[in-house]
Amino acid sequence: MVAKKAVGAAAKKAPAKSSKSSSPKMDDMRTKTDDQLSEQLGELKREAFNLRFQAATNQLERPARIREVRRDIARIKTLQTERSRSAQA
Predict the structure, then answer these.
(1) 68, exposed or middle or buried, with CB in 10 Å at 0-12, 13-18, 19+?
(2) How large is the C-alpha radius of gyration of the chain?
(3) What average pLDDT does this structure show over 2-27?
(4) What CA–CA distance (Å, rounded) separates 30 from 24?
(5) Phi, psi of 57 (to 5 degrees)
(6) Do 55 and 63 form a contact (C-beta atoms < 8 A)?
(7) What is the CATH number of domain 25-88?
(8) Are 33 and 80 in contact (CB under 8 A)?
(9) Is the pTM value of this prediction over 0.85?
(10) How far is residue 41's CA from residue 51's CA, in Å, rounded to a whole number?
(11) How does residue 15 score in pLDDT terms, banded at 50, 70 and 90?
(12) C-alpha to C-alpha distance for 33 and 79, rounded to whole angstroms
């Protein structure tokens, strides 16, 4: 009986994520050029800066936006790293 529960629990686990993301957001970013990504990265960093100030002065309307911007910045940096490594290889 105990072994059955362990098997059932293992069967319910989500499959491991692949190294390549297939999210619509990432697919959209993959179609952009390096210059467009750099420009978008600059805009997102500026927005993150402004959001930090809004949070400090309690004027932030959407606190979840900080997380979204931070993750978008990470996505762009990841994509830039992938491209630079593939160019070196």
Answers:
(1) middle
(2) 19
(3) 59
(4) 10
(5) -100, 15
(6) yes
(7) 1.10.287.310
(8) no
(9) no
(10) 15
(11) very low
(12) 11
Q: Say which amino acid occupies 72.
A: D
Query: What would the pLDDT profile of 43-76 be if each residue is shown by its tens digit?
Result: 999 999 999 999 999 999 999 999 999 999 999 9
Q: Could you state, in order of their start, the residue ranges of all structural domains in the chain?
A: 25-88
d(CA 17, CA 78): 16
Query: What percent of the chain is predicted at pLDDT more than 90?
Result: 70
Tokens of 10: 């293992």
Structure tokens that stand for 12 in this block: 């319910």
DSSP 17: P
Mean pLDDT of the chain: 85
